[in-house]
């Protein structure tokens, strides 16, 4: 086979595979949005579910999902960033680093249901917190931490060595080089890692059923005391996220309009994840240009 013909066949094959993936994604998202978009309204997005009569919404579930995202990323991002920087910049090749990487790979391959059972034992029972947002956030941290450490490590390693050498040649020490040269250059990859882990927070359900719970108390959004049981900001209250809500109403079927709520919830979940990814990428590019003076 001639090299030019082989190159053309390979190019067509790559394009066909890419278009196939895009077509599957668009058809799946389009199907969900078509059936669920009819149910989306302001009342649907702000009101709580109705168990007795139809017309309820998913307001508390949306708030719980975003609040759980904030709590989880507050633990995941600092630890993941420091772990990735350590493995990429400071750790030397040794049996210790091999053990750390083996542990990361093992944790990354654990099923979420196993992490949920671990969270039920440790974060729910041993701590005495019960089903709570804090238990769910720590369980999600266990799930996301191996992934974000690897992404952070690879992003830091991808920075050209010449930038480090130039910074050190100008008199900067190791820590100054990492903070002022390496991290700004690796910022797009760091943002991508944060986006990936955030998407897993929105879509996770199995681990949260055993840690955050499958019900939410009646929330009083005028109550700002975080220790009050009805306060939406209380991290030690049970909370049903949007993904758990979709699973629950489809399996239990207690509400009269479950098909409408399930389709609308799925559409909202896709729109939230898509909007969050687009906004985060735009913000990441903007901050990267400012930090690197492009």
From TrEMBL:
Q: What is its main location?
A: membrane
| Keyword field contains Cell membrane | yes
Q: Where in the cell is it found?
A: Cell membrane
Give the top-rank taxon of the lineage listed in the UniProt record for this protein: Bacteria
> Coiled coil: which residue ranges?
none
Q: What are the record keywords, sorted?
A: Cell membrane, Membrane, Transmembrane, Transmembrane helix, Transport
Its membrane topology, per UniProt? Multi-pass membrane protein
Limits of the ABC transmembrane type-1 domain: 62-280
GO terms for CC? plasma membrane
> Where is the chain membrane-spanning?
12-34, 66-87, 99-123, 266-284
The Gene Ontology terms for molecular function here are: phosphate transmembrane transporter activity
For this entry, list what GO says about its biological process: phosphate ion transmembrane transport
Pfam families from the UniProt entry: BPD_transp_1
The record's family statement is: Belongs to the binding-protein-dependent transport system permease family. CysTW subfamily.
Protein known as: Phosphate transport system permease protein PstA
